[in-house]
Amino acid sequence: MNEPHTAQSSIKKCVLTIAGSDSGGNAGVQADLRTFHSYGLHGCCAYTALTAQNPNDVYAIHDIPAHFAAAQLDAVLGTYSIAALKTGMLSSPEVIEAVAEKLSRHSEIKKVIDPVMVATSGARLIGDGAQEKLEELLMPLATVITPNIPEAETIAKRKITCKKDVYETAKCLFDKFGCNVLIKGGHATQDLSSAEDTLFDGVDFFHFTMPWIENPISTHGTGCTLAAAIAAGLTQDLNLKDAVEKAKKYVHHAISSSYFVGENCGVLG
Length: 269
Prior knowledge:
Blueprint: E1 14-22, H1 28-38, E2 42-54, E3 57-63, H2 66-76, E4 82-87, H3 93-103, E5 110-113, H4 130-138, E6 144-145, H5 149-156, H6 163-177, E7 180-183, E8 197-200, E9 205-208, H7 222-235, H8 240-256, E10 259-262, E11 265-267
Parallel strand pairs: 1-2, 1-4, 4-5, 5-6, 6-7
Antiparallel strand pairs: 2-3, 7-8, 8-9, 10-11
Helix pairs in contact: 1-7, 2-3, 3-4, 5-6, 7-8
């Protein structure tokens, strides 16, 4: 006869996303929860903004009031057994301040900070003054930050045109924030040989490369998905290098299996 589960013995780890909503279901919280589910994990969420968007454009952004963002975190943190989290779109300084204040109380949670600044469509997703607050308050709390090349250039205030630049920028960001740095290579210029993601832990560099996918149906939400997958891997007690490697493979498969859901409208598989 099976022994009954006690409340304590049956507790499973959860993962949290703190991000914006994508009305098309491709990116943001929707992409994150889909990723957590694929990893077999329960996902919690705290909305920071609402967007009216599809893969081609962002039509409108409505910021969630900072006090309501904080209330969502109060409802989740300390109640759910959250082992790791990721942040995405944080468009207002006030929301960033509220999120950073709550997260500063939870050093036990691993934090993947994705400095989302521009949507795949090109629309800017971060408001005036928000980048400064992101750098000042949130990135120093990170286990790892996951900027793409344009974001890394913006934060480090330096250009990336070759692999040496990637290394120097990663070192610059590590020194600035004291956390692991993953620079995503999907926005690489033609001077870079591949879409290679580079992880720097303060001592060593690790490289993650998957074959290029020619003419994919969709890449919308890949940055959100990668950060969510890393957080999911950390929740499963993978070390950071293995979590990034597994996440990279997950995103590659999602792109390669993307499909159409409307005329000229695709989603990740």
